């Protein structure tokens, strides 16, 4: 991750007067698939051991948008590894149910009870606008795959009045036309998790939901109100046409595909924070914005990097005969105080692996391996627990455990796989298992 000043700007720079011009300066333009593997960007690092272990940087976008730009040696490393680990266990229904529980206000409270009246009114009006626009934002392909606007809105925002304000802020930031049009295709992290399960690999996670969730709930109430208000102001300005989003999902995809290792971009994808700082804010509000930035940088990036790095080390030391593929958000590997730094400080030899460079003890995947279907069938059906406290207890790191349907309930037959993928991807995007 880039110098701290750059991170501060990217996370909180969206309302600066020059944001639009800066976006144009950073826009890499059309991104075409290079003719040779060696020209592709690589987010693969090799941990030197026998057998080798790999670190792979993902971004939280539909995998179909980036898959052809991922070098074959990265895919070969995934194929060759017996164990695949993510930030969170993306195929475990406890991840989804735990996240849903974390978002809820305590003691049966409602947003109308805790938000100032005018802020609540503006929030309700914006969500009514989203509901109205949702059918126009969705693609014919999405509708053909069983995604419908009413289902999608109710699943994402149907219980918004019961959510904590900080989660409503993140929800609002995700309810945009660009994000809605991407629902139904697994994000890269989720696709890799599904593929690992299909290949019968050992899968697991280095974090629990609560470890990503609780820091978000740790902001004090005045900070949360400030962040929600600024987020609504930004979206109201976008609706009015007086502001152009400084960075979009399309920008992120272009930077990932075209080889721009800009840690500021990937820090944003890692933190999922909205842009808050506005240089026209009164001094006391600028102080609040800086305090929020400092808190989230420490809690959602630096502390997590240290924790994740230590758990990677524990897995490697406890399983000296196993090969590993760790797929984390690219921002966790770029800049300063990264997962890679934690490993190197502990004596591990970690090297960047350029595209085209053969990897140890693996066979390169054939070049014709490409996407054949943008939608992945979820099989077996997804199980949801009836109670959160049914979650199996285990020591860190967290290994995949087979899911029993005895204590849970299956998704209703009318709920399509594409619908589940859309909802799962949305919920995971709130934490950014980057």
From TrEMBL:
<keyword id="KW-0472">Membrane</keyword>
<keyword id="KW-0812">Transmembrane</keyword>
<keyword id="KW-1133">Transmembrane helix</keyword>
<keyword id="KW-0732">Signal</keyword>
<dbReference type="InterPro" id="IPR002816">
    <property type="entry name" value="TraB/PrgY/GumN_fam"/>
</dbReference>
<keyword id="KW-0479">Metal-binding</keyword>
<dbReference type="GO" id="GO:0004222">
    <property type="term" value="F:metalloendopeptidase activity"/>
</dbReference>
<keyword id="KW-1003">Cell membrane</keyword>
<comment type="function">
    <text>Metalloprotease that acts as a negative regulator of the Wnt signaling pathway by mediating the cleavage of the N-terminal residues of a subset of Wnt proteins. Following cleavage, Wnt proteins become oxidized and form large disulfide-bond oligomers, leading to their inactivation.</text>
</comment>
<dbReference type="GO" id="GO:0046872">
    <property type="term" value="F:metal ion binding"/>
</dbReference>
<keyword id="KW-0879">Wnt signaling pathway</keyword>
<comment type="similarity">
    <text>Belongs to the TIKI family.</text>
</comment>
<dbReference type="GO" id="GO:0005886">
    <property type="term" value="C:plasma membrane"/>
</dbReference>
<feature type="signal peptide">
    <location>
        <begin position="1"/>
        <end position="21"/>
    </location>
</feature>
<dbReference type="GO" id="GO:0006508">
    <property type="term" value="P:proteolysis"/>
</dbReference>
<keyword id="KW-0378">Hydrolase</keyword>
<dbReference type="GO" id="GO:0016055">
    <property type="term" value="P:Wnt signaling pathway"/>
</dbReference>
<dbReference type="GO" id="GO:0030178">
    <property type="term" value="P:negative regulation of Wnt signaling pathway"/>
</dbReference>
<keyword id="KW-0482">Metalloprotease</keyword>
<dbReference type="Pfam" id="PF01963">
    <property type="entry name" value="TraB_PrgY_gumN"/>
</dbReference>
<dbReference type="GO" id="GO:0017147">
    <property type="term" value="F:Wnt-protein binding"/>
</dbReference>
<dbReference type="GO" id="GO:0031090">
    <property type="term" value="C:organelle membrane"/>
</dbReference>
<keyword id="KW-0645">Protease</keyword>
<keyword id="KW-0325">Glycoprotein</keyword>
<dbReference type="InterPro" id="IPR040230">
    <property type="entry name" value="TIKI1/2-like"/>
</dbReference>
<protein>
    <recommendedName>
        <fullName>Metalloprotease TIKI</fullName>
        <ecNumber>3.4.-.-</ecNumber>
    </recommendedName>
</protein>
């Amino acid at each position: 991750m880039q110098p701290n000043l750059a991170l501060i700007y990217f996370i909180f720079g969206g309302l600066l007067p020059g944001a639009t011009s800066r976006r144009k300066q950073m826009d890499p333009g059309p991104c075409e698939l290079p003719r040779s593997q060696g020209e592709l960007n690589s987010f693969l690092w090799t941990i030197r051991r026998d057998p080798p272990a790999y670190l792979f940087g993902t971004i939280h976008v539909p995998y179909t948008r980036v898959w052809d730009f991922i070098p074959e040696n990265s895919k070969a490393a995934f194929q060759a590894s017996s164990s695949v680990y993510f930030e969170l266990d993306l195929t475990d229904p406890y991840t989804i149910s735990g996240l849903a529980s974390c978002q809820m206000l305590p003691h049966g409270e409602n947003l109308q009870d805790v938000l100032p009246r005018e802020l609540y009114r503006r929030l309700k009006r914006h969500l009514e606008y989203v509901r109205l626009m949702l059918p126009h934002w969705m693609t014919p392909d999405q509708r053909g795959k069983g995604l419908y606007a009413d289902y999608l809105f109710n699943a994402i925002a149907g219980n918004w009045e019961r959510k904590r304000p900080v989660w409503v802020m993140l929800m609002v930031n995700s309810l945009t036309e660009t994000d809605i049009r991407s629902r139904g295709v697994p994000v890269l992290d989720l696709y890799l998790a599904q593929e690992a399960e299909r290949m019968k690999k050992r899968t697991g996670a280095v974090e629990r939901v609560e470890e990503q969730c609780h820091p978000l709930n740790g902001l004090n109430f005045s900070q949360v109100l400030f962040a929600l208000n600024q987020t609504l102001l930004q979206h109201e300005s976008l609706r009015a046409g007086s502001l152009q989003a400084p960075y979009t999902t399309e920008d992120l995809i272009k930077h990932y595909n075209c080889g721009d290792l800009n840690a500021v971009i990937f820090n944003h994808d890692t933190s999922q924070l909205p842009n808050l700082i506005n240089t026209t804010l009164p001094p006391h509000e600028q102080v609040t914005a800086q305090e929020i930035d400092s808190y989230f940088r420490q809690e959602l990036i630096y502390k997590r990097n240290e924790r994740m790095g230590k758990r990677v080390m524990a897995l490697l030391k406890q399983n000296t005969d196993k090969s590993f593929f760790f797929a984390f958000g690219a921002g966790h590997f770029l800049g300063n105080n990264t997962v890679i730094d934690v490993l190197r400080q502990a004596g591990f030899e970690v090297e960047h692996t350029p595209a085209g460079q053969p990897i140890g003890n693996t066979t390169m995947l054939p070049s014709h391996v490409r996407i054949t279907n943008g939608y992945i069938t979820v099989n077996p059906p997804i199980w949801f627990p009836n109670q959160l406290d049914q979650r199996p207890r285990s020591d860190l790191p967290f290994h995949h455990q087979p899911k029993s349907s005895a204590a849970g309930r299956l998704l209703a037959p009318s709920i399509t796989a594409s619908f589940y993928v859309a909802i799962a991807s949305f919920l995971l995007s709130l934490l950014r298992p980057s």
